[in-house]
Amino acid sequence: MTAVQAPGAAPGRRAGAWRRNLPRLAWLLVVWLALWGDVSWANVLSGLLVGAFVLHVSPPVEHGPFRWPAPLPTLTYALRFVRDLVVATAEVARQVLWPVSRLRPAVVEVPLRCRDRALLSLVSNSITLTPGTLTLEVDEAGPRIWVHVLHLEDRSGAAEDVVRHARSLEEHGARALRIDLAQAGGRPGAGRAEREARG
């Protein structure tokens, strides 16, 4: 038997796609308003138009069902990030005002546990937004990330501290995004703990 597409099926699918994209559109609108720094009818309308255009021209992304973040773990993650931001800013300021004799920039390989794109993006962006560290590369298949550190202390366990901090972000982020790390990826992959940056 030959399947015949009923009239109006394609528009129905398009409407369903737009309903699934509503959370993304809302997030783009929030980012747009934050960039303008003013909530006005003009900014809301222009943000909706720009967000709709971006979603229209962007290629479809394969992802699972949308998960609303857990409120309390999300707040905990935000407070943790703000604390890290303050501490890292003070440390970078100290290095500028009282520089060490020789900076030791390094690239640290961090094996993670979860291949979820949202969680990987959350962790890598949190690291990049923190002064003194930068996510250079994300390997979803690992999963692992490579973190550039402005100054890695010349002591035993310094690289492991970077790895431990990134994995702690992953654990807190997983709770915020309602992801079970035990089922998401298992044990972290093995790999080089550190390689010194050249130049």
UniProtKB/TrEMBL annotation:
The lineage of its organism: Bacteria, Bacillati, Actinomycetota, Actinomycetes, Kineosporiales. It is a multi-pass membrane protein. It is found in: Cell membrane. Keywords: Cell membrane, Membrane, Transmembrane, Transmembrane helix. One of its GO terms (cellular component) is plasma membrane. Coiled coil: none annotated. It comes from Kineococcus xinjiangensis. This is Multicomponent Na+:H+ antiporter subunit E. It holds the Pfam family MNHE. GO terms for molecular function: monoatomic cation transmembrane transporter activity.
